[in-house]
Design goal:
The protein is α/β, with parallel strands linked by helices. It has 13 helices and 21 strands. The C terminus is likely disordered.
Length: 467
């Protein structure tokens, strides 16, 4: 419907435990805009991650109902004091102006005040809905900002040079803006022969080539690269690609690190809870023996490939990562549509344990490994409360306010997905994060339901009693 309404003005405020000066500096770094976007709304930042201080435009893509929309903003004014003014360069609104001001709140706090003025929103009657959605986005951003600042405070302001492989993947694309907004310098290992910018280091993990000189003097390497294991049936060629991408790539990287004149002090290298195989209800810690099967074999070789780095005196952390829950990728993203249609339910018997970790907490685990010098060797990167698959289905249904009663029989999984479906959906392991807990790591959402609500953006108060 066409709207005759005038401009909409939206105001919102929140507080974080940091000085206005520190909060202001955080906003000026690359990655800050991405970190302020909530996990439950699909707003994508297109192109390069431009810091606000440059004044260069940045582009956002989002949806309003069925409408795909793009918006280009720029920081038109900074100051006086801790103040920003963003304005729309082009986009769906006749005008958009966002003013954010930062003021001291007591001795150690910062009050954030936002005022957004929107003109003729898309010529549609969106006023009330727009106001509500923008306020939710802003409040989520305040909480995220406060959490990030507390995490980075553990470094005491130190700025590190961090090299990341797999930076464009599900985990890497969330890790990089967290690090850069925290003041760290991030360089990406890329498989392009002609890198797009100076922060990219070319490598070919399968051919064993890497520009080793570019690694000299880095402080930390985070190795996340690897072929996806849940993208299709495990043919012989597919299994070979999975093994090579993990084992050969890790050998290439660790061989280069071991030969450096000035090696990094830390390598965080991804592994997986597949190391433990199918173990029923047995409680598994980092001391538990390896299991059986294709994934267990790959994980053993994957972790062994980091040994040259350890022998060179580099502290190595092998993260045995559980099922990563994220709104826009991985297992949860694939589940949401059938569950929202009321077609979700237990898989197979539903008794197999799901050892999971929310993406926000996994980013925290990687950062914790950077902070905690006593952490080394295998580390289970999972939430402290693994759940049977049937309980996971019931909880997701409750969060989405949908029934979760439609079973997916084991024979159908085997018929459709073969060995891959057997290993990923019908088998399970009850993995516990003993090393993380012993080292003082605090999970943002240690239980499943709060993490799911954080990721999909539902309010528990609106869902009480939902089945």
């Amino acid at each position: 419907m066409l709207s005759s309404r005038g401009p909409i003005e939206i105001t919102c405020a929140g507080t974080v435990e940091a000085s206005p000066q520190l909060v202001y500096a955080w906003h000026l770094r690359p990655g800050a805009v991405r970190r302020l976007l909530p996990p439950w709304v699909r707003i994508r930042l297109l192109g390069a991650d431009r810091p606000l201080e440059t004044g260069e435009p940045f582009r956002l893509e989002f949806r309003w109902g069925p409408l795909p929309l793009r918006m280009e903003l720029r920081c038109a004014e900074r100051g006086p004091g801790e103040r920003f003014r963003l304005e729309q360069v082009r986009g769906p609104f006749s005008a958009w102006e966002h003013v954010r001001e930062l003021h001291a709140d007591g001795a150690r706090g910062c009050k954030i005040s936002d005022r957004i003025r929107v003109g003729s929103p898309i010529r549609l009657r969106l006023g009330g809905r727009l106001d509500t959605k923008v306020r939710r986005i802003l409040h989520t951003g305040y909480a995220q900002l406060g959490h990030d600042l507390r995490s980075h405070a553990r470094y005491g302001g130190a700025s590190l040079r961090v090299v990341v492989s797999g930076a464009s993947g599900l985990v890497g694309s969330a890790l990089v803006p967290f690090l850069t907004a925290g003041g760290h310098r991030v360089e990406r290992l890329v498989r392009r022969t002609s890198p797009a910018d100076a922060a990219e280091i070319p490598w070919d993990p399968l051919a064993g080539t890497l520009d080793r000189d570019r690694l000299e003097g880095c402080d930390t390497v985070v190795h996340l690269a690897g072929e996806g294991i849940g993208e299709g049936r495990w043919t012989r060629a597919r299994k070979q690609a999975i093994r090579q991408s993990r084992v050969d790539g890790t050998r290439t990287l660790c061989g280069a690190l071991a030969a450096l004149r000035s090696p990094p002090r830390l390598l965080v290298s991804a592994s997986a809870v597949g190391f433990y195989g199918d173990r029923g209800e047995e409680s598994l810690t980092e001391e538990s023996p390896r299991g059986e099967g294709f994934l267990a074999d790959v994980c053993r070789e994957w972790e062994a490939a980091t040994e040259p780095a350890a022998r060179a005196g580099i502290r190595v952390v092998n993260l045995r990562i559980g099922v990563v829950l994220a709104r826009w990728g991985g297992a949860l993203a694939r589940m949401l549509l059938p569950f929202r249609l009321g077609l979700g339910g237990p898989v197979g018997s539903g008794a197999q344990f799901l050892s999971w970790v929310g993406l926000p907490d996994l980013i925290g685990v990687i950062h914790h490994a950077m902070v905690e010098d006593a952490l080394s060797g295998p580390v289970n990167a999972v939430a402290p409360e693994p759940v049977p698959q049937a309980e996971f289905a019931r909880t997701l249904g409750r969060v989405l306010r949908r029934p979760a009663l439609v079973p997916l029989p084991a024979f159908a999984v085997r018929l459709a997905l073969g060995e891959m479906g057997e290993a990923l959906l019908l088998e399970g392991a009850r993995v516990l994060p003993r090393k993380l807990l012993d080292s003082g790591f605090e999970f943002r959402a240690p239980d499943l339901e709060p993490m799911l609500r954080l990721l999909v953006g539902t309010d528990s108060r609106r869902n009480e009693g939902a089945g």
